Amino acid sequence: MRPLLDLQKEVISLFLEPCDIHQMRYMSLCLKEEYQKKLKSSTACQERGTFIALDLGGSTLRVAVIELCTRADPNGGLSIRHMTVHKINEHIRQLFAKDFFDWMAAKVIDTLRQCEHTQSLLHETVHVGLAWSFPIEQTSHRGGTIQPMGKGFKAHEGIIGQDLGNLIELACRKRGLEVRVSAIVNDSSATLLSQAYKDPATTVGLILGTGTNAAIYLPVNLLGADKFGKRDAEWFTQAEKVIINTELSMFGKGILPVTRWDENLNRNHICPDFQPLEYMTTGRYLSEIFRLVIAEAVDTCHLFDGVLPQPLQGRYTLDTALLAAIEEDTTKGCISSAERIQKEFKLLCVPTPAEMRFLRLLTESISHRAAAYIATTIHALWMLEHDPMLEMTSKTIVAANGSVISMYPGFRDRCQQYANELVAASQSSASSRSRHEITIRPTEEATLFGVAVAVAVSGAT
Predict the structure, then answer these.
(1) pLDDT tens-place string over residues 278-315
(2) What distance in Å separates the CA atoms of residue 314 and residue 303, rounded to the nearest whole number?
(3) How far apart are CA 356 and CA 12, in angstroms?
(4) Is the Cβ–Cβ distance between 256 and 18 less than 8 Å?
(5) 215 and 234 in contact (C-beta within 8 Å)?
(6) Cα–Cα distance, 48 to 460 (Å, whole number)
(7) Model pTM score
(8) What are phi and psi of 152, to 5 degrees?
(9) Which of 19, 101, 285, 335 has the fewest C-beta atoms under 10 angstroms from its C-beta?
(10) Helical ranges in 199-306 per DSSP H
(11) CB 180 within 8 A of CB 128
């Protein structure tokens, strides 16, 4: 039998050695090169007004009346006048195209009727922005063709390739409401837009929750011409910058070090190698890595008397909230989280102090590495536009949203510390007059606010 302390030392080595700042800087440079290749090739006045924002995710549809005013406003120019939240149950997930979009249209109309600020819009053309947390092939700022949705939804069946904006407009028109879908964005782009409305120094939007993604505002000349499809030559002479949906989760294979537990997760995943960054940093997978290490510890170190608890015998049976609770537990001997583990794992006895020390160290190692890898990718994105060796001053705001970056204890602070160290290491031999700064800033209701801003900048009035 292997001593538990021996495995504990190996966990520290495998998870935390890659968090060395010099190794992280090298990874960042490699990621930057990977981003640059993909950017090049791959198959005015302040906006104001009242807009309707739709946020469709895997479990809820949110319909909000958003007012944009002025940055001098105490809320930063963004406020929610009215919002309704509609749970998506299994019945809704099973609705086919026509019925699903009819359901959405009904919720939009109900919201407008409830809000005194928008009663008059029922008789006008309503400008709507949509955050669509499912795959589409974007064809313009206000259009995109439907792709398979996943997550148990059937709304796409029979309408693959049809325009999403048109489907929503038609469903509303059938109910007597004239709607124009003026903007369709994903959650990372919406997060960027919401914070950029308050602070123009915002150039990156980061999502880190169940999954991860980032959007970045970059000069057009960093992208290959094929990325823009068919556009008039005049467009290229006028365009300066563009928001890029990076699909950040798909990068990092062969760059970010992995452990045998990561390899196990990837090997048994339905889409192996598809999202290497996501598999090591997000809410869905941090708990699965935790479970895999525990399973090995039970088998080789006699953890929990050598018996794998029944709730841990299936894949993806743990919630990352448990890891957060262990790290947040300040009681002596982690008594509080030990009792929770006994209950959730259905153990006959409370875990021993030695077992709790191992579990606590394991959660910290997993989350520290995740924070380091996210900071590394942020730094790599930052370097696409910034040369830390130049004698200049730059300030970059990263708008951050999602359960892990916002709620996991200490996670954002760790990301910030690693980002600070990476910037410092990058400019260590630069002129003393060179000052660069990356600030990871949490956002509230970023998706809804960002969608409203997208509608505003589209020219809707």
Answers:
(1) 999 999 899 999 999 999 999 999 999 999 999 999 99
(2) 18
(3) 15
(4) yes
(5) no
(6) 10
(7) 0.82
(8) 85, 5
(9) 335
(10) 233-238, 260-267, 278-281, 283-301
(11) yes
